[in-house]
Structures are given as structure tokens and as C-alpha cells.
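Q: How would the C-alpha cells look for this protein?
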Amino acid sequence: MPQLIPPPLSLYIHFPWCVKKCPYCDFNSHKLKGSLNETAYIDALIADLEHDVPLVWGRPVHSVFMGGGTPSLFSAASIERLLNAVRSLLQCKPGMEVTMEVNPGTGEYDNFVGYKQAGVNRLSIGVQSLKDENLHNLGRIHSSSQAIDVYHQARTAGFDNINLDMMFALPGQSLQAAKCDLMNLIALKPNHISYYQLTIEANTFFAVKPPKNIPTNDDLELMYLQGNTVLQEHGFKQYEVSAYASDGHQCQHNINYWQFGDYLGIGAGAHSKLTFGATNQVKRYIKHKSPKQYQNNSQGFIQEEKCLKDEDLIFEYMLNAVRLKKSIKLQNFSLATGINSATLIEKLALAIDMKWVQYQQDTLKLTESGFLVSDEIVKLLL
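A: Here is the predicted structure in C-alpha cell form.
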């Protein structure tokens, strides 16, 4: 096996609380009961990071992403204290992308100027829809007017890199209604749009009680293709299955995930994936999911540690790679996994025969039909 070369490193920070748990959400998030003890959780995050620093000693960090849950439930002062600790403990790349997720509900965010002064330079706002009926059906606690107001507040505060999330294939949504919703979002002129389908995930309220009048599979494909066309007509280039950006505004943190980069995760339920070139190992770490247990940390923060085997590496590499529009270089696959690319080609033989994947010399590329069935391609690797 060739020597594994550690790829670029990112930092993910998880905030596990929300004002209300959305019925479609399968992330590690918990409804906030009572007041939020910001100090205790920030203390735990910093202690967690201090514990993990030896795992990434000397490696530069290229991006930071604060997700959840709802990171914006925390004050600007708490975010500043946390990011100061990150900068003191890690070798941070100058001008690196620092993203924070924001929910538009009343009382779910502090002054945006304060967040910017703390070092946040990119926001990801969970709009989901600009139609109040859709927001109600999704269990969101904000209105369309609140979402628009939050966006303008962020612009006024000086944020020049903003992503807006929007869902399609919502209960009772027609093809025309989906287009209208998207056009209203585009009119706000964000720098990046995440446009993704509502899916019914296991262990969610919607899995127990599915919403009625979900669009058919044929309508889902038409909505996806329609959204793709509309977004690109308005200057948003698709670089991932659900990510569209204006020039220079691709999310560097997410690109690192999809290119099988390394990431250190801190916070309740956070995951890490780290490459150790000296031992030719790729490891995963999972932190305790329960916020209470995580903050207690009497037995450490890590709940699970796993060294990835060859089959894990192939599956996880392709699970991420098929999301990107760009070609997959087989040399990069081998450098990241230490596995001969012939093994991958053999596993993808059916996808190549089905013309879902094009194989040319040293690259693989999904065709347009392959892009629509990327989940099926990944299943071939199981």
C-alpha cells in the first residue's frame, strides 16, 4: 500500500439545540428545555478541542463550519470566545472560510455585527421556503417575512457570503409552485443556494406520520431538473448535487468533505475523519451524542473510534465523490485510500455498462443520467 498523504483539514463544531425539532430532521438536535447554559457548552467545546489537538498537531485548518441544531442560539460573545480558542489552539489558515448556520425564528440569533466581529465570514440561513403554508407544513417556526428580514440584517451587517437553504418536493407542491418559490429566493440575490429535496428519513416524526400529497417520483425529477435549469440561467453554477454558487462562492468546507478531505469534529455527536500517514490509517471518531453526557465528559468525549477497512474507504470515498459535478481522478482515489484504482473500476463495472459512469483513462465522470441515480451507484459498492 502506498503511503497515505493527509489531505486538507477542516473543523466542524456541532451545536445540538433547537427551539423546536423539525419533523423532517434526523440530525443530532434536541428541543431546548429551559434556559441555555452557553458558558457550560462552550467550556465543553474548548475542552474537547484541547483533547483532540494532538490528533492534528501542526496541520493547518482550511475552514470552520458551525452547524446544528441551531448555532445562532448562542450569543455573539460566546461565538467569539469559541473562535478565539480555535485560533489559539489550531494553525488556522489566514482568511479561512468560517461558516455559521442561522435559523430565522424570533430570538434564534444575536446581532449579526457581533457574529462578524467574532470572525464568522459566511452565513448559511435555513429559509426552506418563502411561502408560509410550506413553512407551516414543514414545522418551521419562522415566517417568510422573518426569513427575508434576517437575510437583509445579515447584508446590512456586512456579510458578503451568504447561503440560503430551500427545499422542493414539499407536500402539495406543484411544479409551477416550486419554480415560483425558487424565483423568489433568487430575487434576494444570495451568493449560494442549497436546493434540495424533502426526504423522509428514519427516526423522524415524518417517518412515523408521513405528510400527505408528496409529489410523485416523476414530479420529483421534473422539479430537480427545473430547479437546475432556473438556477443556472440566473448565474448559479451547480458544483454538487444540491449546491449552486455564484462565481467565487462555492462552500470550501463542504468541498473538502466531498473530496474526501479530513475533518475534526467537536461537539455533541460530532464526527471526525482523520488520515494518519505514518501508520497508513484512516480513522473515524464519534463524540457522545447526549449533550448532558458530552458536557459531563467524565469518561472522555469520544464514544466510538474506528479504523476504516478497504471496503469502508471505497464506499465512503465514492459516497462523497459522486455528489460532485467534476470528474473523479483515479490517482486521487488511490492517494486518499491506498487502494489500486482497478478495484474501484471492477466494482463500478455495472454502472459503466449502464452508462451512468464514463470511464476514460485515468478519470471517472457521472453522466447526466448517472447524476440522477447517484444513490444507486453507491449501492453497487456495498
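Residues 9-256 form a domain with the TIM Barrel fold (CATH 3.20.20.70).

The chain has two domains: 9-256, 327-382.

Upvote if useful.
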